[in-house]
Amino acid sequence: MNHELITVVDEYDNFIENRPRKEVHQLGLRHRAVHILVFNDANQVFLQKRALTKDVNAGLWDTSAAGHVDAGESYDACAHRETIEELGVCVDDTLSFLFKLPAIPETGMEFVQVYRCQHNGPFTLEAGEIDDGQWFDIQKVTQRVKTNAPSITDTFKTLWLKFEAIDNE
User: Fold this and answer.
1) Phi, psi of 24 (to 5 degrees)
2) 139 by DSSP, 3-state: which?
């Protein structure tokens, strides 16, 4: 996985060059990612616990599915691919764009496009990427984020606060 090529971008999310993922992370270069929030009919959100073998945020809770936008790939195509790879489901019929986060330290210098979709599971979690997955009540997630729970990734905290703000408008 560390040899995958991802796009390095400038402060406006314009293409600069493609570089290996490991290099991009080591150098702290701006790049692209997607995060997908999966909700069920009970209005709970599915969160994944990242595998302990991950090089970033190992063992922490994160969005339902997420990943780097590969070189030459669009954000939308990546969201489609990641839900299939990580959760084993196609959610194209309910997948919708919510918002975009800037590339800042809290997002790992990633421009993050956030999507939402509806699915009740079951899921086939990608071995080696995800150690666990659970449904959570939205209020409990909000409480954990607001108390800055150390078991949740910084990117998730950042995007959840933005999600809550637009969801309450």
Assistant:
1) -60, -45
2) helix
pLDDT of residue 4: 84
Alpha-carbon gap, residue 163 to 117, rounded angstroms: 13
Q: Phi and psi of 44, rounded to 5°?
A: -100, 155
pTM: 0.93
E strands within the chain? 5-9, 15-20, 31-39, 44-50, 61-62, 65-68, 96-101, 110-118, 130-137
pLDDT of residue 3: 64
Alpha-carbon distance of 71 to 131, in angstroms, equals: 27
pLDDT surpassing 70 at residue 34: yes
CATH superfamily of 32-66+73-98+111-167: Nucleoside Triphosphate Pyrophosphohydrolase (3.90.79.10)
pLDDT digit string, tens, across residues 95-148: 999 999 999 998 989 999 999 999 999 999 999 899 999 999 999 999 999 999
Q: Which two tokens stand for residue 4?
A: 């995958």
- The CA-based angle 45-51-52, given to 5 degrees, is 135
Question: Assign residue 81 a region: left if phi > 0, alpha if psi is -120 to 50, beta otherwise?
Answer: alpha
Tokens of 43: 């209005």
